[in-house]
Amino acid sequence: MLLRLCFFISIISRFSNNLLCLCKLFEMKKCMYLLIPSLFLIFISCSKSSTETTDVITNSLVAKWKYNGIKTNGIVSQITTCDKNGYVVFNTNGTFERKDYYFRENNNTCVLEGDEKGTYTYSSSTNKIVLKFTDPYDGAQVETWNNVKFTNSSLDFTWDENNDGKDEHAVSYIK
Q1: Which of 2, 129, 156, 174 has the smallest C-beta neighbourhood within 10 Å, fewest atoms?
Q2: What is the pLDDT of residue 66?
């Protein structure tokens, strides 16, 4: 980003020096007719590329992600076929849906444990996803996923469940 900015400034600098030379040859009024539209075009063309970069990041995250595993305090937890029913869906409008399942051994059933819907924000500068939702038992919740890394096929993050400043969980999802 900084490299782009420096490149942009050097182009403007060269452009303005050339324009000033032209302005000395012509009247200043005529020069303004050239300067204003030229600067407008430069700013329009530069703003488009940063939007495209944001769209690429957002579009990569927007998908249905299937639960693939978890480590708690560095220990890999065994996941069942039932656990793998869990997923999170990130939508383009900033909403999400998440379902978590667990296997109840006493009667061999797969039980829905969590069913959350809410809003999310993703920050590429901090590599965090913040989920906001209402839990039927605990009320309004804010959950922060730290160290978020995602590709076209995997989503990994860490999570501080008890808010003690240490991420106890490392969670993995796949498309």
Answers
A1: 2
A2: 97
Residue (of 102, 98, 50, 96) closest to 77 by Cα position: 102
Instruction: Give the pair of three-digit tokens for residue 83.
Output: 């656990």
- Residue 117 in contact with residue 133, Cβ under 8 Å? yes
75, pLDDT greater than 90: yes
Q: What size, in residues, is the chain? A: 175
pTM for the whole structure: 0.67
Domains and CATH numbers, the chain: 2-53 (no CATH), 62-174 (2.40.128.20)
Question: Is the Cβ–Cβ distance between 82 and 60 less than 8 Å?
Answer: no
**Helix or strand (DSSP H, E) at 36:** helix 28-61
* CB-count exposure of residue 2 (10 Å: 0-12, 13-18, 19+): exposed
Round the average pLDDT of the chain to a whole number and report it. 79
